[in-house]
Amino acid sequence: MVNNRLIIVLIFGLVFFSCNKNKIPKDVERALKLAEENKSELLKVINTYNKNPNDSLKLKSAYFLIENMPYHSFKKGNKIFDEAFVLAGKERERQIKENPREKNPKDSTYAKLGVLLDSIVKRNRALDITPALHYDVKYLDAQFLINNIELAFMAHNKMPLKLCKNFDDFLYYILPYRVGQEPIEVNKRKELHEEYSWVYDSLKTNSLDDVVAKIYDINRFRVISKRHASYNYPYSFSQINHIKIADCTDITNYIVYILRTLGIPAGVDYTTKLGNTNRSGGAHTWVFYLNNGSQRALNSGPVYFDLEKTFRFSSTPKVYRQQFHKKQEPPLEVTHLYRDVFDVTVPAIWNIDKVSKSNTFLGIYDNNKSLFKISKAETIKNNSAFFKNMGNNIIYFPYVESPENPINYPFELTKDGKVVFFNNDGTLLKNAKLLRKYPPFMIKAKKQKYRRIEDLNGAIIQGANIDSDEHYINLDTISNFKSTQSIKFYFNTSKI
Predict the structure, then answer these.
(1) How far apart are CA 306 and CA 26, in angstroms?
(2) What digits encode the pLDDT tens for the residues 17-43?
(3) Which domain holds residue 247?
């Protein structure tokens, strides 16, 4: 009787698969329509995996890739620039040989690359070197996608550790053929898998963290703040492999791709603004990888550096996760994975008639006195704006539509999640603690720490009774400051 039931279930499963193998999901149909002349290539991928029930997971993988291809495109630079990366890479190799033990050698590769790129531009003024824009859904052929699926499953099956908690982890963080907007390279996944195949044997005797640290040691990546003006679009992975130098986005994407080719689920997290940096911009990306439900976040620099403590005590307002599938707005937020977050309710006392869910925001200021939008209100209720999962230890400014329309006073979201408004309530403080405006986001070198302390010397402390540049007066000047300890400064309170 039991055997008969198993046979019935098996037959039903085969019939169900047979009936549904030609039923293509709506999102996949949409992608096929957008593919236009490339539709036949995408159908080849589907037809490769819809015949055998044993390929059901690969068919699901094919659907996942195809339905999300419309969200992706890339710019491919002219081939004449490739020579610059090759020659700059030789400069990098020379510098590494001269500094074999230095994790982050101060080499001249970046400057060399700039000279080479500029030279190519000057020599080819008559040539159109504008990068070509390609849409994945119209550009990628069947063989590329099939190879990607096969290589992803092979790497996952070869991995001696159980790193994916479920099939979604595989789909999201191993399977994708791209990480960001890097140019597509046909055989790059296979090449990197073979180059780092030593990882599988190493994992038999070493921890995953140690093996990933070894990958960092081998490459000694160097992060620079921006790309060269002559080539201001994402580098290919081959180009990065030559020079080992790029901005944090390009380096992060490359590290993540290496890990994925090996079957290590990995991805990119980012922030649009570091709450404790004095710079304009302040965006940053970094690597994370998964280990059966747990997560490790790493900086994208020359050394393996765990970011857990850095973000736990930083003032980062929001952290987001970059995803291959369905670009969502707002993006997937993962701030709670890095630091304490709190929900905030801000009563509107001004511009009440303008307040709505779609136009009410929290912002923070940078050193240009520019307000940077951080979060949009989740809901508006009883003339109060509700904001979800806000990072603490930050001063926020609530406004509607534009900074000229505040809805309340600026406030500090304290360490323990309290909202303290900076309103003019006439309170006279007997003692006040002055906090430094520009704490370090990440300082590892001892010399940098000392230099940062001594940089306070010469700082002028000013005060005023009203908000006006003309009415500020100097209260004191900091001098002979070389200590890491809390230092008390006493002012003549009669001045203000």
Answers:
(1) 41
(2) 444 556 899 999 999 999 999 999 999
(3) 110-328
